[in-house]
Every structure is written in structure tokens, then in C-alpha cells.
What does this fold into?
Amino acid sequence: MANDYDALLQQAKRGNRQALAAIYDAFQPPLYRYVYRQVDSQETARDLTAEVFHRFLQSLQKGNGPDQYLQAWLYRVAHNTIVDYYRRQQHRHHLPLLEQFVAADDDPVHLAELHIAADRVRRSMRQLTPDQQQVIALKFFAGLSNQEIARIIAKPIGAVKALQHRAIAALQRQLLPVEEEVTL
Amino acid sequence: MTPHFDDTLDMALERQLHGEPTAVILQDYSEQAEGLTRLLPVTAVLTTLPPISEPDLAAQQADRAAFLAEANQLLPTAVSPGPLARLNDWIVAALPRFGHQNIRQKESNTMSSLILKAAVALTIILGAAGGTAVSAAASLPDSPVYPVKIALEDARLALANDPETAVALHTDLAAERLREMEQLALADHVPDDASLNRLQYHLETALDLAGQLPEQSMAGALLQIQEMVQTRTRTMAQVQAQAPEAPQGALTQARTMLQNAGEVVAAGLQDPQTLRWRHTTNRPDAAPPQPEMTPQPGGVVSPTVTISTTQPLTAPVRLGPCATGDCGTSQGAGPYGPGRHGPQPEEPGVGPGPGEPAATPGSGNGQGPTGSNNPSPGECQGCASGNQYGPQPDDAGNGSGMPGGSDSGMPIGGQSQNGAQYQNPNSGSNTSSGSGGNH
It folds into this structure.
């Protein structure tokens, strides 16, 4: 599969529109889901995913895009895009409702509980180091394997497991109240 | 020996992600259960988030179209590699067809070696012809090596293994025909009818195939055609302003074709469903599923986009192939071009006809009239095109490559039940050797 993407990438670098379209079709859905889990709205997720592909095209235009491991490159850019987004957001004092929780239940009380829980999940995620955030998001939101994650964050698999352990331990400390609310 | 907790946690997480209950997982890691008991509930929160709400289809299409439009802006050049790179691509693309896929998997090293040797041999063999091919690539219709250029283009079309590639290729070739006409005109040479025919063929085929693409791909294909049309229209206007009088008529015809194609594209971008409908009408409900090679699985009798060379496009799409019966001839065009795509009937003339489930996909060499249950040559000539890819509800027997054509009398070729089938204007006319017998 990686070779297929590499072949597509080489064609895309030559300006082949079909290759570009194929890359978009292959990676837009998982990247959208990856971003969506970490931001606050469908529109934001769409915008940030589009930003990833915009950066991809720009890199091709400048001739400094990836030569291989396209998936890793795209997820890395997606991570940076999300970090940039939160950096821009840090001076804004609001935490919008997570849509997935809103859509999950029509009961107002349960909605409020989920809202609080969702906020805390996101807040807790933001307390992790960038590497820890990335490992958790790639593992649980993008569903990638340790090997894929290792390639994306450019660390050995052992380091991925260690980061994962520390991240979950940190989340446990952050999320204990949320755990009580969500897991009943 | 107790494994490292990082590894234990990772294994436990994998099982949790696969839906195993936490209690069951903890039983298997009793020595490290305390740590897991503390951490697994946290990850359970992360893994039990509700499903993600995806954007609606219109939003997805808009995002995709925006990406492709930006690609067109940022990467305006280098649509295709140079002639030598293309030649190399053809060789690489063609060679695997000689080996069975399983064999290739099992003996990849051997096959790679064989392929390498074959490539070297081909390179040597083609060495002498290489110079001709390269010079032919830049030749004009009045050049002696121009037929080589057309033959190479046909080979590329024959190797186009998916509709999107075929659309891009036909779009590129339409642009190439226009460039040739412009150069001829500036040299005070009049482009011949064959050039106009080829231009029309490429434009119509590109539009027809684009109209049958999945929704997500259609917009991109149409934008690609639109970009070419706009670029060439501007260039053509400049050339017309500089060209002598003699070639003006042909240039005007070419511009009209471009204008008509542009109108079809604009209409398709505005209302993709209508464009699609025009390409997917008339397919009987009982028609069987189509093989993967077809541009539009589950496709239908496809109408033909007809681009007039002489008048504005008032009725851009003719519903139903050869409604008038006054059509040209078909020459066995493949699904995306003039070549043979996919498996072919083993023997010419005996290609299975409609209603025969064993019909082999691909446009074959079947010579229809020799088969039984053929419509007589005078019947609906042009309705048939070649290649209907498998069983069809109407038992027309071993169909032949039936004539197809345009309202304007330009050869267009017939259509299959699931994909555009065109006569290649390069491959002659008035023969019925084209279809795989699957009318």
C-alpha cells in the first residue's frame, strides 16, 4: 500500500491530476476524522483538513514535498495544523460544544453531562506534551498502528509505547472526574 | 519474565480497541493488573466516543473541487511527462500484463528480473525506433512521421486502465490536436478534416467518460477539461488573429468545438446529475452488473455527447446512441479509447453476444455479422458499438462493431451499455470489426 501511495506521490509531483485526486480521495476521509476528534466542529475540521491539502499542494509547488511515506507526511502536517489552530485559539475564552456529543443524545441532562465530559477530554488532551497528544490522537482517533505512528513522529516503536503509557497516565490524572461522569 | 509495562499496556490496548471487555483483559495480565486497572478505563473513554458526523455529500464535493481547482492554480504545468518518460511508462505499464498476478506475487524477484530484462530488450529493440518516436511526438499532420505519433497516442489510450486517466488523456490529446492546428495555421497550412475529426473524437470521449465518473471524480474531470478548453480558446483566438486567411475556416470550426465542449462542461459543473443522467439513461433494470473495467459499474446504455463542428451546441447531448440510425462505423474502440482494454474474446467473430453470461469484458475483435442473431447490417447501425461487457438484456446475438456517428456526420463511434465507446477516427471507418460481439 505504501508503495502505491509512493507511486501516486511521484505522479502527483509531476502534476498528474488523477494522482492528486486519488491522494485526496484516499487520505481526506481519515484525516478529517483525525482532525474532527480534536477540534470543536465539523466546519473547523473541514477547514483544517483543507489546510492540510493546501499545504500539500504548496509543498509540491515548491518542490519540497515528501518523497515517500506520504501518509506520515500528511498526518504530521495535520498535527501541526491542529497545534496552530489551538495556538490561535488560546486567547479566545470559549470552548465550543463537541458536536459528536451533542448529536449523541437528545436528553438535555445527558447532553449537559456529555458536554462537560467532552470539554474535559479536550482540555486534558491539551495538557499533554505535543508528542503525547499526537500519539493518543493517532492511536485512538486515527486508528493507526504503532508502526505507522512511529513513522509519523519519527521515533522508534518502543518510544511510541512509552509515550502512550505516559500520555494515558497523564490523562488518567486529568480525567478522573470525567471518568466518573462518563463511565457511570 | 514479566514483560515491560509499556508492552503490556500496548497489548491490552490493542485488545480493548478490538472490543474485548476490560475485565477479561485484566484476567490475562494479573501481575500488572493494578496499573492496567487504573489506565484502561481512561482509554475506554477515548475509544467509546460517538461516531463522527461526516459533512454532507455536497460539502464533500465542494471541498474536493476546491482542492482540484487549487491544484490547477498552483500546478498549472507538467500535466504529463515528456515523450521518453511516457514511453517508459507505457513499457512499465504494459509489461505486467504478460505475467499472471499470482505468479508475480510468488516470484516477484524472478519476475522483476524478467521484466528488467524485457525492458532492456525492448529498449534495444525500440532504440532505433526511439528517435522516430521522439521526433514523431513533435510532428504535425503533414509530417511523414505523424502516423507514428498517432499510433503512440492510440497505444497510450489502449493502456489507460481507468476512466479518470482516460479522461485526462483524451483531454491532453484534444489540446495536442489544437496545438497542431495552430502551428499549421501559422505556417499558412490548412488543417485537414482528419485533424478536426480527431479533435472532436477526443473532446466527445472525454466528456462522455467524465459524465459517467462517480460524483466525487466528475467535478475534477470536468474542471480539468474546462481548464484545457479555456486555455486553448485563448490561444486559438490569438492564433486566429495572426493566421492567414486560408486556415481560418478550420480554426473557426475548432473554436466552435471548444465552445460547445465548454458549454457542456459548464452545464455539467452546474448540474452534474443531469449530465450523469444523460449518460445513464435507457439501461434496463434487469441489466446485469458490469465488470470493474467499465467506466461506470452498473452502467447503462450511454448516450453520446455530440459536439457539432459547425454550429453552437443547442442540444449538447443526444439521448440514446444513434437515434437516427444514420451513424458512422465503429472500429472496436476500447472502453476509454481506441485500443483493446481488458480481456478480449478469444477468437474474432465468435464473441459472445448479449444474454450470454460468459461474455468477456472488453472490446473484442468479434466480427459481428458472422455470428448468429446479428441484426442485419442495415439495422440500427450505430446503435451498437462495441463492447457491452457481458450479458445484455436484448438478445442481439454476436453483435458486431456497429456504426456510430454524430449528428454532424463526424465519426463518433457507438456506445456500450456501460461506457462510452467511440470509433477512433484514426483507425479507419466502414468496417465492422470492432466490437467484441457483445452488442
